[in-house]
Specification:
heteropentamer, A mainly alpha (500), B mainly alpha (583), C mainly alpha (483), D mainly alpha (102), E mainly alpha (322), B: 583 residues, mainly alpha, 22 helices, D: 102 residues, Helix Hairpins, 3 helices
């Protein structure tokens, strides 16, 4: 196996192996565990860097192992997977640091970090999957790896949330699987191909209806993780998980995997033109739009901060779907780049929410009055993230929205602009009051459960990650046109998918 | 990509410095030990803007790495805006340093003052949609903190309402910009307006920027915000930021390229409406700053009219543009000076006599606003009148009348202002020494700046015909007379002001309506939620009943009975045999 | 060396070694545990050798006594047998190792001889090419299984064993009557010869009916599954592992062979559909009961009822892909279900009970056991990368290819149910609690054994191409339609 | 009807009788008897039909099979009887309860 | 193929009817003891039938095992059952059965008729003549080492079946042992008659067993019949009050029990190691080997059957050490 075939495996292994080792570490080996985690994360980052450089220079990376006759286990690196891989590697490092700080002195850390690493492994696998079956493999693995993280707290609420999560995701996985197998029986291959393979390979006798049904199955399966309404019910419940998990869930792994899958299915399985031709993209776009609006409205009424953020995620993640379902390269750029942008912003928000909960015991929006005076840096990061979500320039969210809007125009679907506008208004409606209360209200009294965390407002391991990600969120917006920026990648991807 | 001359190095640095100096200074306030020094320097953050305004050669600076590729640069319109904006920020800043001395939130004020300044100046030098939008948003959001600075309930309410409008404006602009950019196929503002624009884009842009410009009916935030903000903030709000809405129109709308008769009608109607409405509501205000704020609405209404005329007749657009610019220029300074003066007056406290010099000083900008001859107002108004003269017959006459009517109203409004300034109760006197120099500077700017205007021919102005003079004078005279009569009668108790409209005017019914709606909505949702809860409870009950439903289990146990499994076994045998036999 | 490996009748060794192991464990109880371990190890090695032989030279027949069919008995080893033998060896090894930790000495000494007889019987069954010899092996298997079930001596276990005994008796009697009819119709007992001679006749209908239903009873196909849950739930854990993992598959294996080789394909279309329908019922009934179960072992037992339902879907599908899928399912289910029962055994050993709601007090202390259960559960519910996933994939593919989407729907729905009951258990084990009960320390070896089996069942999915290639040895699917 | 057929049919009858009794008789001892009758029936079918060789000597293979079967049957019977006794000891019953307590 | 003359037909009909009737009586009679006695009678009639069907080997086995040993086992079990049981349900009928259940109870009968009909049709449709494997057996009898074709099939042609079957027997005993002991029974000391009978009959039975073993080479007889006879001797001894001692259970008993299976395994291994097929004997050694195997099997079978009758777990010492 040469290096170009080994690299994807190495990238997987860089989180898998530490994860497996960590499972067997005694609780007390904090340093070893942290070192392993960070080493794995750094190593992955380096390897991803090598891969990005390689792809940039025209190397193609592909690992191919036989799975069952006619179907291979394929990992490969194309522009789209690299975008996601890079995102998850970077955010993994940050989240690891955060989690180390967050879980200091809490029980079952070996278990936690073990599954944590598995989770990222699965995400990276999802990203690099070269065909639908490999994707499915890692997609389901992701379900399994995240479940213990969701129920990590071990409370009854956590258990129920975990069950709810599973109900949705496993059912979704099943739909996805049916769709995948069906597609396989029709096409005989599942390899992701630029521009899709379905239109070429589906035999002439294949009815369009069955292709539509398969599409619906696939999207429904992916839509569960991508939290498309009405398949979103698990996400707000999953909020009982510790903050780093929520961060991971919302920004890096689970919802992203769903959205990423939708991108894959539309572009590399069906091919956007064929999908549009089948008439499936418009309903999907409408569904995504409905999700955006509905979840935003729901978010308005949540007092629990993390629940509010969860509904915000549901809304925001559908931008990605909306982007790819809007037929046209510009909207595609918007959708794809939002994959990264949403991740950066949302992870910031969750980190901050975690900081508040961990340091002050603040869980509710109504408890956040004046919290910015106590934790200015945290809330600064939060504010950046929230403004980005609203779509205030020059933050990341604005760039996504701009492309989505322009793309909608290009596709002749002006209504999408209205959706974006409405969503922005709603985003503002549920984020600005938080910002206002935090910065401009006086604290009501003692914090619910304040715990001194060092000399700064909280531990540096908790403070650094949100600041870094917030700065990223600012930078990717402000410097959107710099080479290697997410936007540039997204443009590259869109060019390939649209065959230019 | 248009062929533009790239700017020289020095000019590039200056252009970047225009928004970045205030931005960096704002950031520099993060460490608490630097705050004092930065506050002291804050007003001067607008110096680069002045320099650019003074020395720009109109070259463009491309920053391809910024956003989606940005361009900064200077043009004629920008120059005018930059001049008055920078001056206002400078003087208001200097004024603010003293005004807020001793205020515990001074540092915060100046941090956001600088941020807002950065946005305001930055949008003027922006030559592409995104950076314009970026700076516009920066300005809009940052100024929120200036408005609610006092954090008294009125301030908070004003701030809240302001932010509603900001968000509304932002999203409208976003939609307009996105759609417009797509239709135009460019992100650069110099190429932008030249292309066809759909009605919806135009509408979005007009309303979106109209919010900032205080256009009717989206003006409601303005009086609240302007009157409650600290005076230095009011100055820049009413003088500078309000004009950025106008700049938005100028930059984004296809003015001078395409005739937009329908939109023209809308603008003219809304403009005159605002002009008159501002006066009528303003007259009933008890707060000098509120009066001034309504005056701003009224004056901006006139500018809107000018814009509307330009929409109707693209061929006379250059004329329109210069009229509008002059008016904006004039209004910015005059309003700035008025606010500064009113601020001083409010700070003097005590005897009315001490306000004598202030009132005297206020006369100058007030006259200017009323359009008395030899003031900037006269120049501005004559430009507008000339413009209207170009319109077809019935329109030109009627609008001239309306214009005069507005002038009368403005005079009355100014009279009201003086009345209020003179008689208002005020609290403890404060040190006002530091406030005077910037005000005096502003007064001098009001007095003389218009003469620096390149297209204003001093000689022409001085040799205005008697008819012209009369035209300029009679509304003011009429207004003054009316005001005097009203005041006299009111003093004798013979006249009561016929109506009283609270600040924020249409907000009152709107918020009443929204409260009502909200209550019934929440009532409805509550009921719905209750019903859903009931249903969920029923479902839950049903589910738990299902769980208690033991028959699968009983059946399973039954199946262990010998007879039963025996029967099944034999039945299967028989069935199998039959099926095979049939096959 | 290579010649020896590729020519030596390893199948015979697979039968003789456990028989010898049984006798020696019986004779020398003092060293029984070492004998047991070496026997189990020898089994594994022999299977490996057999695999090497089969892979290099293809399937082979071994004429016992040198007579050859029809007079003598022939052993027959092809990919299908290899698969089952491999599962037997692996699970057998694990159970042997586990039982040494699990049983107290006196019970162990009684367990081991019977256990090796069971292994021998299974191996004999998987290698036999003679329908009467299959009967003997079947009886040996059944009797050993019943004896092991009753071993714990508890009330429930005894009753369950009795029921099991009668069920297995009725099943084998029916099978034997079928054999009688076949023999007297076609004059042979050998599979190969029968395959050429068998044709439709009333006797064939009866024979096929008796054999199929009898074997279905022994495989615990719904609605004839009544004996399985009590038996598997009340037997000692290693025994349950073997019962669910291996014994149930023995009778199913005979059924497979009969349908694949002896009875003509077109002939069995409607009965195939019928068996498939029963399979679907089994999936849902078993799933429902598993969901309702409050004890872990009972849950696992019902899960077996459910999985048996999956096996029977092969009859209506009946394409090569479907056969691949079901055989792969047999293999992965053997590993996974054994792992599950061993994990349950750990829990019982640790806490003295297996009430699911009280797992929060246990699972925290036995993370490896829990991991084993969860991993095996992944395989059972057909999630990747478990072996069950590949199996499910192939079966869904087969049903969609043949246009019989309803089987696929049943499969998928069934896997959802499976997920529900697996996570019902797993969900309880993450709950935090401080209550401590009086507990026994579980030997590390027991935990590792369960985990190793579970891991094997999960990793099976990643190396699926090998078993799938092995299945083809001997061309057993030659007569099966490709799609 | 030939002797072979006759006895074969008797064998079938025994099989059916045994099966029936196995299902409807509750007493375990009687169930064990029933199982034995069942097996006798199968053996009878096997041996009776073995005489259809057309020669004097019957086919010996079924005979050997039956001897094997008889030994298996007695083994199973013996085991079943002891199991029954154990159950009777534990439960005081010679019937299996319909309900199965965990 | 017989032509069915009247006498034969009457005999066959009577036998057949008798078989069915006895079976039914055994299964339906209200008293267990009667049922068992009838079952023994059924076994004897079966033996007669086997003779009628030219299956003397089976008849011997049936008498020894089917009727004799099984009967003894059943009676012993019944005796112990009476001792162990607190209440014996007299009737097979359950109380409180509704009409529906009673109707349902008829269902098995109806279904049984259907099955019977199918089976009868199948049997009747079989070809009237089928040589089975008799031709092949005859052809190879010469090289099998024995002259009795049934023994040849049992121990040579299908010796592998027998190998497994011996293990079935052993397994039954192991299973019984694994169930644990029954409560100690106070067996009344055998009376003098029984004692004398045992003393006299045991050597006779052993001799008979030896004869069966020897005769099986040429004619009816063989290891199973011989073993069953030995087993009968063991039963007799037990009835007379003999009990195996602990040491016996530990070593001797085991050795004898294992002898038959072990010999089979050894022979099997030997053939394999010698490069032949499993259990492939050289024709010249076949007779000897078969006799050897049969001898071992006889011993083991006899002791196993006796052990099964004993029914308890002997004191094997497992319970003492840990």
């Amino acid at each position: 196996m040469n290096s170009s075939a080994a690299l994807p495996l190495l990238i997987l292994g860089s989180s898998l192996l530490p994860g497996l080792v960590i499972f067997f570490l005694p609780e007390s080996r904090v340093r070893t565990r942290s070192a392993l985690n960070l080493l794995g994360a750094l190593l992955k980052l380096v390897l991803v860097g090598v891969m990005v450089w390689g792809v940039f220079n025209g190397t193609s990376y592909e690992t191919r192992l036989p799975l069952i006759p006619g179907l291979d286990f394929v990992l490969h690196a194309d522009a789209l997977s690299l975008l996601f891989v890079t995102l998850s590697s970077v955010l993994w490092l940050v989240t690891t640091i955060y989690a180390i700080g967050y879980l200091e002195d809490s029980p079952h850390r070996s278990r936690f970090f073990g599954f944590f690493s598995l989770c990222v492994t699965a995400t990276v696998g999802v990203a690099m999957a070269g065909n639908l079956v490999t994707f499915l493999l890692f997609y389901e693995l992701l379900t399994l790896a995240t479940y213990p993280l969701i129920v990590h707290r071990g409370t009854e609420v956590a258990r129920l949330a975990g069950l709810s999560y599973l109900r949705y995701t496993i059912a979704g996985g099943a739909l996805l699987m049916i769709g995948t197998v069906w597609l396989y029986t029709l096409c005989g291959t599942l390899e992701f191909t630029y521009g899709g393979f379905v239109h070429e390979l589906a035999s002439a006798s294949t009815s369009r209806e069955s292709l539509v049904v398969i599409f619906v199955l696939l999207i429904a399966g992916l839509g569960v993780k991508a939290a498309l309404v009405p398949l979103h019910g698990w996400l707000p419940q999953a909020m009982v998980a510790p903050a780093p998990v929520s961060a991971l869930l919302h920004a890096v792994a689970v919802v992203k995997a769903g959205a990423f899958g939708i991108v894959r299915v539309i572009y590399d399985v069906y091919g956007i033109e064929f999908a549009a031709n089948l008439g499936v993209t418009l309903p999907l776009a409408i569904l995504a739009a409905a999700t955006i609006v509905y979840a935003s409205v729901r978010a308005l009424f949540q007092d629990d901060l993390k629940r509010r953020l969860a509904f915000s995620t549901i809304s925001q993640i559908s931008y990605i779907t909306l982007g790819v379902a809007t037929v046209g390269p510009i909207a595609a750029i918007g959708g794809i780049v939002h994959l990264v942008h949403q991740g950066l912003m949302k992870i910031t928000l969750f980190f901050c929410a975690g900081n508040l909960a961990e340091t002050l015991g603040v869980h509710k929006v109504s408890e956040m009055d004046g919290v910015a005076h106590r934790m200015p840096w945290t809330m600064a990061a939060f504010t950046l993230g929230a403004l980005g979500m609203i779509g205030v320039p020059p933050l990341a969210g604005f760039i996504s929205k701009w492309y989505l809007g322009t793309g909608a125009m290009a596709a002749g679907q002006e209504w999408i602009v209205a959706v974006l506008v409405g969503s922005s208004v709603l985003n503002a409606a549920y984020f600005l009051p938080i910002i206002y209360a935090a910065w401009f209200r006086e604290a009501k009294g003692a914090w619910p459960a304040e715990q001194p965390r060092g000399s700064a407002e909280t531990r540096w391991t908790l403070l650094l990650p949100p600041l870094v990600t917030a700065l990223f969120a600012l930078a990717v917006g402000l410097l959107a046109s710099v080479p290697f920026s997410p936007l540039e990648w997204a443009q590259l991807i869109a060019e390939r998918e649209y065959g230019r | 990509m248009s062929e533009v001359m790239s700017a020289s190095f020095a000019e590039s640095v200056l252009l970047i410095a225009v928004p970045f100096v205030p931005l960096v200074m704002s950031a520099a306030m993060l460490p608490s030990r630097w705050r004092e020094s930065v506050v002291r320097l804050a007003p001067w953050a607008s110096l680069p803007a002045l320099l650019v305004a003074a020395f720009s050669t109109g070259e463009m600076l491309d920053l391809p790495w910024l956003l989606l590729g940005s361009r900064l640069g200077m043009d004629d319109v920008g120059q005018v805006f930059l001049v008055f904006t920078a001056v206002l920020w400078l003087l208001a800043g200097i004024y603010g340093r003293s005004y807020l001395a001793g205020d515990t939130r001074r540092a915060r004020f100046f941090a956001f003052y600088l941020l807002t300044m950065s946005g305001n100046l930055g949008l003027i030098v922006s030559q592409d949609i995104l950076s314009f939008y970026l700076f516009f948003a920066l300005m809009s959001f940052s100024s929120y903190v200036l408005i609610m600075h006092k954090q008294i309930p009125q301030a908070l309410r004003a701030g809240r309402i302001y932010i509603y409008f900001v968000v509304l404006g932002e999203v409208l602009l976003f939609a307009g910009a996105v759609m417009g950019a797509w239709q135009a196929g460019t992100l650069y503002l110099d190429e932008f307006p030249g292309t066809a624009q759909s009605n919806i884009v135009t509408g979005l842009l007009i309303v979106g920027f109209g919010i900032k410009a205080g256009a009717l009916p989206v003006h409601a935030w303005l009086p609240l915000a302007h009157s409650v903000a600290p005076t230095p903030a009011s100055v820049v709000l009413s003088g500078a930021m309000i004009q950025s809405g106008l700049l938005g129109w100028l930059r984004f709308l296809p003015l001078g390229h395409v005739a937009l008769p329908e939109w023209s009608l809308v603008c003219i109607t809304a403009g005159f409406g605002a002009a008159i409405y501002g006066v009528l509501v303003g007259l009933s205000q008890d707060e000098p700053k509120a009066v001034l704020a309504y005056s701003s609405i009224s004056q901006m209404g006139l500018i809107t009219v000018g814009t509307g005329v330009g929409m109707a007749a693209p061929e006379i657009w250059p004329l329109c543009l210069s009229a509008i610019l002059v008016y904006a220029f004039h209004h910015a300074f005059a309003k700035g000076a008025l606010f500064l003066g009113v601020g001083i007056a409010a700070s003097t406290g005590g005897a009315m006599t001490r306000r004598g010099p202030i009132v005297a000083g206020l006369l100058l900008p007030a006259f200017a606003l009323a359009g008395l001859p030899f003031t900037s107002g006269a120049v501005a108004k004559s430009g507008l009148t000339e413009l209207i003269g170009h319109l077809p017959e019935p329109w030109s006459v009627r609008m001239a009348t309306l214009l005069s009517l507005v002038a009368v109203g403005t005079t009355c409004l100014m009279a009201r202002l003086f009345y209020l300034v003179w008689f208002q109760e005020s609290g403890h006197p404060q040190k006002t020494n530091g406030l005077w120099p910037p005000w005096l500077a502003m007064l001098s700017v009001v007095a003389f700046s218009i003469w620096l205007w390149p297209s204003v021919d001093t000689a022409t102005l001085l040799t205005t015909s008697f008819a012209g003079l009369w035209h300029a004078l009679w509304p003011a005279a009429a207004g003054a007379t009316g005001a005097w009569v009203a005041w006299t009668l009111a003093c004798k108790g013979l006249l009561k002001f016929p109506y009283r409209i609270p600040v924020g005017d249409i907000l009152v019914p709107v918020s009443w309506l929204s409260r009502k709606l909200g209550r019934s909505w929440s009532c409805m949702t509550d009921r719905f939620r209750q019903r859903a809860k009931d249903r969920a409870w029923n479902l839950q009950q049903a589910f738990s009943g299902l769980a208690r439903f033991r028959s699968p289990w009983q059946l399973e146990v039954r199946m262990r009975r010998w007879e039963i499994w025996g029967v099944m076994f034999v039945t299967l045998l028989v069935l199998f045999y039959v099926m095979l036999a049939l096959a | 060396m290579e010649v020896i490996i590729t020519t030596f009748p390893w199948g015979v060794v697979l039968i003789l070694v456990p028989l010898f192991g049984a006798l020696s464990c019986f004779m020398w109880p003092n060293v029984a545990r070492y004998l047991a371990l070496s026997t189990a190890f020898a089994l594994v090695m022999s299977v490996i050798a057999l695999a090497v032989r089969l892979i290099t030279t293809g399937s082979y027949r071994h004429e016992i006594g040198g007579w050859g069919a029809p007079l003598g008995i022939e052993l027959f080893a092809d990919g299908l047998s290899l698969l089952m033998l491999a599962a037997t060896a692996v699970v057998g090894f694990a159970v042997t190792v586990y039982s040494i930790g699990y049983f107290p000495n006196r019970q162990l000494l009684r367990f081991l001889p019977i256990w090796f007889l069971l292994l021998a019987a299974l191996n004999a069954l998987f290698l036999s090419g003679d329908i009467f010899n299959l009967y003997v092996a079947l009886e040996l298997t059944g009797l050993a299984a019943v004896a092991l079930t009753a071993m714990s001596g508890g009330r429930a276990a005894l009753i369950a064993a009795m029921r099991y005994l009668f069920a297995t008796l009725v099943g084998s009697m029916s099978y034997l009557l079928g054999v009688v009819l076949i023999y007297h119709s076609f004059g042979s007992l050998d599979f190969m010869i029968l395959a050429e001679r068998v044709e439709a006749s009333p006797a064939t209908w009866s024979a096929l009916g008796l054999m199929s239903i009898g074997l279905a009873l022994k495989t615990a196909l719904f609605p004839l599954h009544f004996w399985l849950p009590p038996a598997h739930a009340s037997a000692p854990a290693p025994v349950s592992a073997a019962l669910s993992g291996l014994v149930v598959k023995a009778s199913f294996y005979i059924l497979l062979r009969l349908w694949l080789e002896v009875f003509p394909a077109g002939h069995s279309l409607i009965p195939g559909e019928f068996l498939g329908a029963l399979g679907v019922c089994a999936i849902f009934w078993g799933g429902l009961q598993a969901l309702r179960a409050t004890r872990l072992k009972l849950l696992i037992a019902y899960s077996t009822v459910m999985q048996v339902g999956y096996f029977f879907l092969v009859f209506p599908l009946a394409t090569v892909v479907a056969w691949h899928g079901v055989l792969f399912l047999l293999l992965s289910h053997a590993l996974a279900k054994a792992a599950m029962f061993l994990a349950a055994g750990n829990i019982i050993y640790f806490a003295g009970h297996d009430r699911i709601v009280d797992f929060d007090r246990i699972a925290q202390q036995l993370p490896m056991t829990l991991a084993a259960f969860a991993l095996a559960g992944v395989c059972i519910m057909g999630l990747p990368p478990g072996g069950g996933f590949i199996a499910k994939w192939l079966m869904v593919q087969a049903s969609l290819e043949s246009g019989q989407w309803w089987w696929a729907a049943a499969l998928i729905l069934g896997s959802l149910v499976a997920a529900a009951y697996v996570f019902k258990v797993v969900g309880h084990s993450f709950t935090q609690t401080t209550v401590r009960e009086k507990t026994n320390v579980v030997p590390v070896l027991m935990e590792w054994t369960a985990l190793a089996l579970a891991l094997a069942s999960v990793l099976l999915g990643l190396v699926a191409s090998w078993p799938l290639a092995w299945m083809e040895i001997g061309g057993v699917f030659a007569g099966v339609p490709a799609r | 009807m030939t002797t072979e057929t006759l006895y074969a049919l008797v064998g079938v009858g025994l099989f059916i009788l045994g099966l029936y009794a196995l299902f409807v008789r509750a007493n375990l001892l009687r169930k064990i008897l029933a199982a034995n009758v069942m097996s006798s029936g199968v053996f009878l079918v096997l041996v009776a039909l073995a005489r259809r060789t057309g020669t004097v000597a019957p086919d010996p293979v079924p005979h050997a099979m039956v001897i094997t079967g008889i030994v298996v049957a007695v083994s199973v019977t013996a085991f079943a009887l002891i199991l029954m006794l154990r159950i009777a000891m534990k439960t005081g019953q010679t019937e299996l309860p319909d309900t199965w307590s965990e | 193929m017989d032509t069915l003359n009247l006498a034969q037909w009457v005999f066959d009909s009577l036998t057949g009817t008798g078989l069915l009737w006895l079976a039914w009586m055994a299964l339906a009679s209200p008293q267990l003891i009667r049922a068992i006695v009838i079952f023994v009678a059924f076994g004897l009639l079966m033996a007669l039938t086997w003779v009628r069907l030219d299956a003397v080997d089976i008849a011997l086995a049936e008498v020894a095992i089917g009727a004799g040993l099984t009967g003894a086992l059943l009676l012993a079990a019944l005796a112990k059952l009476t001792a162990a049981q607190t209440e014996i349900s007299k009737s097979d009928h359950r109380p409180r059965d509704g009409r529906a259940v009673r109707a349902l109870r008829q269902l098995p009968a109806v279904l049984m008729f259907l099955v019977a009909a199918g089976l009868v049709y199948s049997v009747l449709s079989l070809p009237p003549v089928s040589s089975g494997l008799s031709v092949e057996v005859d052809a190879n009898l010469g090289t099998s080492g024995v002259e009795n074709p049934v023994t040849a099939v049992l121990l040579n042609f299908r010796g592998y079946d027998t190998l497994l079957e011996i293990f079935v027997l052993l397994l039954a005993l192991l299973g019984v042992w694994s169930l644990g002991g029954l409560p100690p029974q106070r067996v009344a000391p055998a009376g003098p008659v029984l004692h004398t009978l045992a003393v006299v009959l045991t050597p006779v039975l052993i001799l008979l067993a030896a004869y069966f073993l020897w005769a099986g080479v040429k004619g009816p007889g063989g290891a199973f019949q011989a073993g069953a006879t030995l087993g009968a001797a063991g039963v007799l001894l037990q009835l007379a009050g003999w009990r195996p001692g602990p040491g016996f259970a530990r070593v001797h008993w085991r050795l004898i029990l294992v002898a038959g299976p072990a010999l089979f395994i050894l022979v099997a291994l030997f053939t394999i190691v010698a490069g032949r097929h499993l259990l492939e004997y050289a024709p010249e050694h076949a007779g000897t080997l078969i006799l050897l195997l049969e001898s071992g099997a006889t011993l083991s079978i006899g002791l196993t059957l006796a052990g099964l009758f004993f029914g308890e777990r002997p004191d094997d010492g497992y319970d003492n050490d840990n």
